[in-house]
Amino acid sequence: MEKVTCEAEVEIKNAEGLHMRPAMQFVDMANRFECDITVSNDKSSVDGKSIMQMSMLAATCGTKLKVKAEGIDSREAVDALRVLVEEKHFDEPLPGAKTKNI
Amino acid sequence: MKLAEFVCFEALIPELKSNDRDDAIAELVLALDKAGKLGRGNREDITKAIIKREREASTGMGKGVAVPHVKHPAVKNVVATVGQSSTGIDFSALDKQPVYSVILLISPVDNPDKHLQAMESIFRHLQQEKFRKFLRQSQTVEQIKDLLVEADENPSL
C-alpha cells in the first residue's frame, strides 16, 4: 500500500516561541495520531512526538518549521498541528502583548 | 549556546541532600544564590515561582532527568545549575520514573530567545544516552564540570 504523506510549513507566532509548555501541547497533539511526524528547522529534523527532541528546535517567534507526517491520518495530523501553532498560537500572547512570567 | 556560558559551576550539587522535589529545587536555587547569581533578596520568590511552574506541568521529561525552570526579573542572563540524586526524586515525570539529574534554569523575562537557546543546548545533550549516563555517574563537582565542558566540545556527547 502506498504511504500517505502530508507536509506543511508552520510559523511560530507566540512571542515566547516554542518553549516547553507549547512544545508539550504540540507533542500531546501529535501523539493523538497514528502517523509518524517529523518536524524540521533549517538545521535539524526531530520526532514531533518526543518532547526532548522538540525542545531541541529552539524555535523562536517567527521561526518557520516544516511538519511532515507519514501514515494513514497524516492529513488530519498536519491540519491539527497547523491550527495549534498558527491559529491558536498555543493560547499564548503574540508579540507586543504584555508578557507574564512562565 | 554552550553549557559553560550559562551553567554556574560554583553551584553544582553532586549529591542533593533531599529527595523531595520542592526541597531539591530550593537547594539548587540556594546554591545559585550563594554563588551570587540571583541578586539580593530574590531567592525565596524564585524558589516559589519554580515550584509553582513545576506544579502546573512537570518538567520531568523522562529518562531520569528534569529541567525545572522559570523566567524571573532577578536575572539579566540565563543561569543554570545541576543537581544529582543517587536515590532518585519523584518529579511526577512523564514516564513516572524517578529523576536522578536535575538541571535548574532561570531565564530573564525579556529575552525569550535566549531561554530557548539555553533549553536547546540542554536537551541536545540530555537526548544522548551517554551524556545522561555520565551525568548520573558523576560524583564530584569536578566530574560534573568536566562532563559539561567536554559536552560543549563534543557534539556526540
Descriptive terms for the model:
heterodimer; A: 102 residues; alpha+beta; Histidine-containing Protein, Chain: A; four-stranded antiparallel β-sheet; 3 helices; 4 strands; B: 157 residues; alpha/beta; Mannitol-specific EII, Chain A; five-stranded mixed β-sheet; 6 helices; 5 strands
Question: How would you describe this protein?
Answer:
The complex is a heterodimer of chains A (102) and B (157). Chain A is of the alpha+beta class and 102 residues long. Chain A has one domain (5-91): HPr-like (Histidine-containing Protein, Chain: A), CATH 3.30.1340. Helices cover 29% and strands 22% of the residues of chain A. Chain A has helices spanning 20-30, 51-55, 74-87, and strands at residues 5-11, 36-40, 45-47, 64-70. In chain A, β2 and β3 form a beta hairpin. In chain A, α1 (20-30) packs antiparallel against α3. The model of chain A has no long low-confidence stretch (mean pLDDT 93). Chain B contains 6 helices and 5 strands. In chain B, 44% of the residues lie in helices and 18% in strands. In chain B, strands 1, 2, 3, 4 and 5 form a 5-stranded mixed beta sheet that branches. Chain B has one domain (3-153): Mannitol-specific EII, Chain A (3-Layer(aba) Sandwich), CATH 3.40.930. In chain B, α2 (21-34) runs antiparallel to α3 (43-56). The model of chain B has no long low-confidence stretch (mean pLDDT 97). By secondary structure, chain B is of the alpha/beta class.
Query: Biggest sheet of chain A, open or closed, and with what strands and sense?
Result: 4 strands, antiparallel
Number of helices of chain B: 6
Query: Architecture of chain A in CATH?
Result: 2-Layer Sandwich
Question: What percent of residues of chain B are in strands?
Answer: 15-25%
Structural class of chain B: alpha/beta
Instruction: Using the alpha-carbon principal axes, give the shape of chain A.
Output: globular
Determine the fraction of residues in helical runs of chain B and give it as a percent range: 40-55%
**Secondary-structure arrangement, i.e. CATH architecture of chain B:** 3-Layer(aba) Sandwich
Shape of chain B: globular
Helix content of chain A: 25-40%
Going by CATH, what is the homologous superfamily of chain A?
HPr-like
- The count of domains of chain B is 1
Low-confidence stretches of chain A: none
Number of beta-strand segments of chain B = 5
